[in-house]
UniProtKB/TrEMBL annotation:
SUPFAM superfamilies: Periplasmic binding protein-like II
Pfam families in the record: TctC
Taxonomic lineage: Bacteria, Bacillati, Actinomycetota, Actinomycetes, Kitasatosporales
Identification of the protein by name: Tripartite tricarboxylate transporter substrate binding protein
InterPro entries to which the protein is assigned, alphabetical: BUG, Bug_dom1
Recorded family membership: Belongs to the UPF0065 (bug) family.
């Protein structure tokens, strides 16, 4: 039996549909012709209101106000110290119009949560700035100074509850480092993990914990209102605008910056990476970014490209060593 051939009209319809399908695929694959200069989407791997969200939205505002990139969107993907956002981000493909905010907290979460993806599975773009932790107590706490608290802590390491963020996060790391420098076994910490600075504040004011640790901006309003007393800041040197002595100034040789930085998806080209670095560098020169650094007491620490990649590798190793000391 001879095969029947489709009628010319039917064949024309089929060809037309195939061509339309190819066009749709091509448009989708090229993100409608979007480039990093015309459109950027920034993933904040945390809930709205957190540190990564704040940094992402200040980045967004500076890009727009400085006419570096006008179409900038921020999407929140919270959970597991940022590792949920990281795992999703690593799977989106080689799209140069996507960036993700990251930082010290994610390094700890990668190890503690046994994440199958780490930051070196992305394309590091730039470290932007450093934020710092504070150790704080309620205004009516008997601990007037860091020395007061450490003296009591040394007598009964497990008897003093310390509140902070997720296990393995910056707050926890700082508690462990401070304990070690004070001659206290970090494994003896009575550390209580909370979802964020807001919950730590509630625990402090309700006497659930004796001392809290979080980013300075989480407690800034309460410190300035006189409801909390800051005992120490985790910077290497005094931070302009923060009237609190460093741990180092008080004899505890510990500094721990909570840096913020940006990574792109894996697989983008070197030219695309260079363009994204240029965009970030232009953003950091805007008056809006300078204003953000001043308002939030962030310290400029721009580091780009391969130097940033090496920094991530070294900082992950440092964080891993601290976590091992903490017994996590």
């Amino acid at each position: 039996m001879r095969k029947q051939h489709p009628a010319p009209a039917v064949l024309g319809v089929v060809i037309t549909l195939v061509l339309v399908g190819f066009a749709a695929v091509d448009a989708s694959g090229s993100a409608s012709g979007a480039t990093p200069r015309s459109k950027l989407t920034v993933t904040a791997p945390a809930a709205p209101g957190g540190g990564w969200d704040l940094a992402s939205r200040e980045f967004q505002q500076a890009l727009r106000a400085g006419s570096v990139v006008n179409n900038v969107q921020v999407v929140n993907v919270p959970g597991a110290g940022g590792t949920i956002g990281l795992s999703q981000f690593a799977e989106i493909g080689d799209d140069p119009t996507r960036l993700m905010m990251t930082g010290t907290v994610m390094l700890g979460a990668i190890t503690v949560n046994n994440s199958s993806v780490d930051l070196l599975d992305t394309t590091p773009i730039a470290r932007l700035a450093e934020d710092y932790e504070v150790l704080i107590v309620p205004a009516d706490s008997p601990y007037q100074t860091l020395d007061d608290f450490i003296a009591a802590w040394q007598e009964n390491p497990h008897g003093h509850a310390i509140g902070g963020g997720a296990l393995g996060g910056t707050d926890h790391l700082l508690a462990g480092l401070t304990a070690g420098e004070a001659g206290i076994d970090p494994a003896e910490l009575n550390y209580i993990a909370f979802a964020g600075g807001g919950e730590v504040l509630t625990a402090l004011l309700s006497d659930t914990v004796e001392i809290g640790i979080s980013g300075y901006n989480d407690f800034r309003d309460q410190i300035e209102a006189g409801n909390l007393r800051a005992l120490a800041v985790s910077a290497e040197q005094p931070v302009p605008g923060i009237d609190t002595p460093t741990l180092i100034d008080q004899g505890i040789d510990v500094s721990l910056p909570n840096w913020r930085g940006l990574v792109a998806p894996p697989g983008i080209t070197e030219e695309e990476r260079t363009e994204l670095i240029s965009i970030v560098e232009e953003m950091t020169e805007t008056p809006e970014w300078a204003d953000a650094l001043d308002r939030h007491r962030w310290v400029d620490s721009l580091l780009t490209g391969d130097e940033f990649t090496e920094f991530i590798r070294e900082d992950q190793a440092r964080v891993d060593a601290i976590i091992e000391e903490l017994g996590l």
